[in-house]
Amino acid sequence: MLRRACTLVLTRGLSALSGDPLFRVHPLVAQALAEERPVVALESTIITHGMPYPHNVRTAKEVEAIVLAEGATPATVGVIEGKVHVGLCSEELDFLAGCNGSIKVSRRDLPYVTSRGLSGGTTVSATMIAAHRAGIAVFVTGGIGGVHRDGQNSLDISADLTELGRTPIAVVSAGVKSILDIGRTLEVLETQGVCVATYGPSKDFPAFFSPLSGFTSPHQVCDADQAARLIESLLLLGVNSGVLIAVPLPPQHAAAGQQMERAIQAAVAESSARSITGRDVTPYILQRVNDLTEGKSLQANMALISNNAKVGSQIACALAKLGKKRKPGSATQSHSGIVVIGGMNVDFIAKGKRKALEFGRTNPGSVCQSYGGVGRNIADCLSRLGQQPLFISATGADSHADAILNHCKHMNTSAVTRMEGESTATYCAVITESGELSLGLGDMDVHQQITEQYVSQFEQQLVSSILVCLDGNIPISTIRYVCSLAKQHNINVWYEPTDSEKAGKPFLSDAWKSLSYASPNLVELCAMNKTLGLQTPEVLPNSLDQVLSLAVALSRPLLEHLHCLVVTLGAGGVLVCGEHQAGSVNLKPRKEKKKRKLCAVHYPALSVAARDTMNVSGAGDSLAGAVMAGIVQGGDTDTCVGMGLLAARLSLASPHPIAPLLTPHTVDPHRAQGHGRSQPRFMWID
């Protein structure tokens, strides 16, 4: 059994997957990921099966040194005693290099080796899985597997190809191993939907030891910046497939193509004659080719891996730099836009196939997973509408956090803390056929970790913001802290109450008087008034006129201090209450409190067919986020609310709380004229 000298360091480190008993992330890798610095994943079959000892361990350490020299953090992946390690210390590299009987671990082998406590080197497919779960976007290897020669008969096709088709990560390699059928491999990659691009001035697809294979790549990237933009687009699109960046070996290191091809043909014939199949084919052929070329193939192999590491590290650095440019409000920089403080969680939406659900028995329906949380939803909506708010939240250090943060790569999540020993928030909603909520269950304890002490780290960003949005899930003490800042620095704060129980949180003290906006529904508006000791009806009215009259009456006392209320009425639309200006409500951020004439404007909801309603969990958040985006952009009230209504309609028709189709164009009310919009109704507030 391995006694690792670096065990103490590893156990002390904060791991991105520390909540998962089968995964270990080296503390240096975890720290780099948390700080959004470039990280490069490396596979370990080159150590266990690709090269003889001591070339294997020397090459592995040299490759890691190259990655470090280029400004990135290396993360060699391997399985040690049943644990998948993302990042290995020097002693662990030595252990794998000298481990007799180590297993070549592909996707199919991961359950077996982890269940038996075994050790082994990870192939391309297994390394992709581990790197993706850790949040690493760039993975460097020598060459990927593919369709073996005569694969049309043997059906010997590497799992690397299918993994590239289902795991969104960039694989930087010298193309496909030249012992394979390159043409058929490219055809399978196309079938799997994998984006393939040659790196450099040519579109010629490389053949591992040779820069030329006789085949052409579908695409080309000239340099690290272009490659980084390609990877960023892959991640933002959310297509859940990878990209293969094929890097030709520099000519000065390329072995003589004709000699190499003769050796490969001979090695392939020998392996066939010896009935060598499956995972044993590649290491046998590589060893025989090395013997037949008197070591030239090994030298070329080491050279191409070193070259790939250099190029891959440059791409990872460019990708990290690109991410910082896309996030001008990152936690380490000043912020002048919007700050959202609130929860993020993994949602499980169970939708029945009948109009009514029967409790106590199994109902037919469908279940899907999505990513929600009121704060996350609003930040997501704002991000898709071009605002890039700073999102302050907390998750556990578990696989749910990995999944949700990967999903949120288009957002500025630099202020999301991952809490050791906590579980990422989860929410399960049971909805009817029409999309109405029947039952909700939530594990939201981690939201209490969004403390005043943690949020105060971002005080500079808060006081310099145009707008701060608070999700009612955060602790009362945090709400009071932000409200105290708002009072001192005249910050505009938007309170999204989330539900009737949390609606009254700011109203338990005078903190609410420092709020500028709130977006309750009618039940939450009643709860706010009740918390202030004001009378509210026991039963809510049914007719729209009565609902509007009640909403106006309940809004009046709150508008003594609040600048504006956006009251959501479900199918009844939206009621906006606040200062009168030019025949409407003034939604623009206020600069000072003053006496004003109050009014309300009712905007009917946009029509949505019941059959098109997927769920209602994110409609209110979509509306609030889009209205905020309109306010920050300086839009008039009709435009801001029109954006909100269009965003809510997109959300209702999507399985996701925030529709992926949400863009500035899809919520432009001027482009949507004549599509189910009704005229707003103006009312004075006494």
In short:
The protein is α/β, with parallel strands linked by helices. The strands form three sheets. Strands 1, 2, 3, 4, 5, 6, 7, 8, 9, 10 and 11 form an eleven-stranded mixed sheet that branches. Strands 12, 15, 16, 19, 20, 21, 22, 23, 24, 25 and 26 form an eleven-stranded mixed sheet that branches. The longest helix has 31 residues, at 296-326.
Strand content: 15-25%
| Integer count of domains | 3
The rough form would be described as elongated
How does the major sheet shape up? Answer: 11 strands, mixed
Overall pLDDT: 85
Low-confidence stretches: 1-19, 327-336
CATH superfamily of the largest domain: Ribokinase
Secondary structure: number of strands: 26
The class by helix and strand makeup works out as alpha/beta
From the alpha carbons, calculate the radius of gyration and give it in angstroms.
29 Å
Q: What's the CATH C level of the largest domain?
A: Alpha Beta
What is the CA-CA span between the terminal residues? Answer: 80 Å
Q: Helix segment count?
A: 24
CATH topology of the largest domain: UDP-N-acetylmuramoyl-L-alanine:D-glutamate ligase
Structure description:
This protein is an alpha/beta fold and 686 residues long. It contains 24 helices and 26 strands. The strands form three sheets. Strands 1, 2, 3, 4, 5, 6, 7, 8, 9, 10 and 11 form an eleven-stranded mixed beta sheet that branches. Helix 4 (55-69) packs parallel to helix 14 (296-326) and helix 15 (374-384) crosses helix 23. The longest helix has 31 residues, at 296-326.
